[in-house]
């Protein structure tokens, strides 16, 4: 009979496999911190996974990754995880981008497909008994989020038609998508480098009337989102002090 420690280790091995599937590279330090064990324990776990046939590639100074082409069987969802997605799907109706709603609904359908019969029956019952008041569900004001997401992760230039607040004329811009920022009131904002302004700008998705993916790529920006937001906050506080 397996001991509690054996079960704990089996659970951790499965979780490490999941991390390797989720991330392209994960370091031993990250794994040790996530599972609250020593790096030496992570080394032993990796060896066990290799011994049972999981092809793990290691890169000195970077971490571990699954060998190219290796696929782990589909992950099974617990009843609680599936239920959480059903609730999230309803809340997503408050979002104003139709492409995001469509993609999420397709995700929920795939989750339903891998559930066992009992969990699926319960999920269908929950789906039929969760709803959002139509008073709060507004007409979608954008449909470009999915396209922009793809451009952001593949470093592809976009041509957009944008009408800034207070302006009557629609302007055409070539932009380098950098990050998304949720500004409240169910509004998604795209942070992008604008080639016209030669600087980063924020574009509200509901003000983008047209968006096209171009064939050209751009060089990824070295700055991360946290650094950008900190710089924006610093500039805001600086200008606020000058006004006071």
Low-confidence stretches: 240-244
Helix content: 40-55%
Output the strand order for the largest sheet: 6-5-4-3-7
Order of helices and strands: HHHEEHHHHEEEEEH
The portion of residues forming beta strands comes to 15-25%
By secondary-structure content and strand pairing, the structural class works out as alpha+beta
Largest sheet: 5 strands, antiparallel
State the helix count. Answer: 8
| Count of structural domains | 3
What's the total count of β strands? Answer: 7
Radius of gyration: 23 Å
What is the 3D shape? Answer: globular
N→C terminal distance:
71 Å
Mean pLDDT: 83
Would you give an account of this structure?
The protein is an alpha+beta fold and about 240 residues long. The chain has three domains: about 5-65, Arc Repressor Mutant, subunit A (Orthogonal Bundle); about 80-130; about 145-244. The chain has eight helices and seven strands, in the order αααββααααβββββα. Strands 6-5-4-3-7 form a five-stranded antiparallel β-sheet, covered by helices on one side. Strands 1-2 form a two-stranded antiparallel ribbon. Helix 2 (about 30-35) crosses helix 3 and helix 4 runs antiparallel to helix 5 (about 100-115). The longest helix is centred in the N-terminal third of the chain and has 19 residues, at about 5-20. About 15% of the residues are buried. Residues about 240-244 have low confidence and may be disordered.
């Amino acid at each position: 009979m397996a001991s509690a420690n054996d079960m704990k280790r089996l659970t951790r091995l499965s979780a490490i496999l999941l991390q390797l599937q989720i991330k392209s590279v994960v370091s031993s330090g990250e794994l040790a911190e996530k599972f609250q064990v020593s790096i030496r324990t992570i080394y032993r776990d990796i060896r066990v996974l290799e011994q049972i046939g999981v092809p793990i590639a290691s890169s000195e100074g970077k971490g571990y990754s699954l060998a190219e082409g290796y696929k782990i069987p589909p992950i099974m969802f617990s009843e609680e995880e599936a239920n959480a997605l059903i609730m999230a799907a309803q809340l997503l109706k408050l979002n104003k981008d139709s492409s995001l709603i469509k993609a999420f609904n397709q995700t929920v359908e795939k989750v339903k497909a891998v559930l066992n019969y009992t969990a699926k029956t319960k999920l269908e019952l929950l789906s039929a008994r969760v709803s959002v008041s139509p008073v709060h569900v507004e007409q979608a004001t954008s449909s470009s989020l999915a396209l922009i997401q793809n451009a952001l992760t593949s470093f592809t230039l976009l041509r957009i038609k944008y009408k800034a607040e207070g302006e009557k004329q629609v302007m055409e811009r070539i932009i380098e998508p950098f990050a998304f920022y949720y500004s409240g009131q169910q509004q998604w904002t795209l942070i992008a480098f604008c080639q016209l302004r030669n600087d980063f700008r924020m574009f509200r998705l509901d003000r983008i009337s047209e968006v096209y993916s171009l064939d050209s790529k751009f060089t990824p920006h070295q700055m991360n989102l946290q650094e950008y937001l900190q710089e924006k906050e610093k500039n805001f506080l600086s200008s606020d002090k000058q006004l006071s």
